[in-house]
Amino acid sequence: MTDVADSPSIRRLSEWDAAELRTLAEEYGSPLYVLDLERVRQNYRRLAAAFPDADVLYAVKANALGDVLSTLHEAGAGLECASAGEVKRALEAGASGSEIHYTAVNPPAGDLDWIVDAWEDHPALTVTAGSVDTIDRLADRGYDGRLCLRVNPGIGAGHHEKVRTGAAAKFGVPAERAVDVLADAADRGFDVVGIHAHVGSGVSSDQLDAHREFVARMGDLARDVAGVVGGLEFVDVGGGFGVPYHEDEEPLALESVADATRDALGAVDARLTIEPGRYVVADAGVLLTEVNTVKDARETTVVGVDAGMTTLIRPAMYDAYHPIRNLTADAAASSGAGERETVPQTVAGPICESGDVFCADRELPVSERGDSLAIGNAGAYGYEMANQYNSRPRPASVVRGDGDVRLARRRETVADVMRPEREARRTSVADRKTDDPRATDSDNDPVR
Questions:
Q1: Where does pyridoxal 5'-phosphate bind (predicted)?
Q2: What structural domains and CATH numbers belong to the chain?
Q3: What span, in angstroms and rounded, lies between the C-alpha atoms of 417 and 388?
């Protein structure tokens, strides 16, 4: 097991074993997500070492695979959940209520119903509310347990405007109203335990001034709140620690971030809490895909692959850069067959959208039909944001851990995509048969 001191702060795509990845693609098919659980542990340990005086909660939304959650729970991490479904996953991974924070945004009624039921069995669960209305809805359901308030500090940062949450009206109670809201919650019988805010996702080294200002505002607020409602257990400053997606981008100086965070927070009688997600899993995963089409277009060479924006949506949604490596070309070069010429190529998926591209005019070794490509930093927000657009099944996932590789999530089939419709038809047939004994499955279910 690799010690933190021996673990590099970033794992580049070039450092993955090309032969092993090609073997996995051959064995499990393509597209395929590959996740290294030991790298997940290393990244968590690095965070825990940099923030020894803080509670580290993994943001489940980055990658909710059960193997990831159980690995991190066993390593000592708590789990921050954005939905009732994620809370259920956390409990199934072995976490107790005291190790789980439920931090939802505009939670649906069904989620709140489920959470309150779960709280009755796990009374140490912490619920974070981002509006007075949500607090009212919790009270209406009989919840008076551990309450954290999400505040809006009025300052945001992150890799794209769509993930800068700290100043977005959608998130949290305006900081200037937080003391009154928490005082009222305490008067109503809630167990007020903390305040929470999140500046944004993918914060880079050049955005640390915004991070420091955000944390300083949280420290000021914590001292104001403590003077009115008494001491808090924790001040949660979220996560957002970025990772370098470009090959020439330097990794975040995590120890400097930790020092700056503590200095900016100042003296508070509460424990610092952080909620990293991307930092823990991004470089622990790759997406494997196969070249199926090579086309000379007017201004570029289009390389068609079997993964697309349904498999990894970040390039289409955020204009995100992901490194790409031709594993077949690298293997050939390693065997002495010589290196392929590099030419500008546009790597595109099979989805009927012009935005379905992983890169445009990027210099890569000449691609040939059947080549295996690897897309790096796919461990965060890859499968979690995958979808079934164009009726495309989601890919399989394999995990590496303890010297073994195994299937962690099977590949979907078209039958899986269609199953909700088929089940609805069968239910409809059953209902009609109750009312009309003349109805038959063969009359109403064309799937049979």
A1: 240, 275-278, 381
A2: 37-278 (3.20.20.10), 283-409 (2.40.37.10)
A3: 7
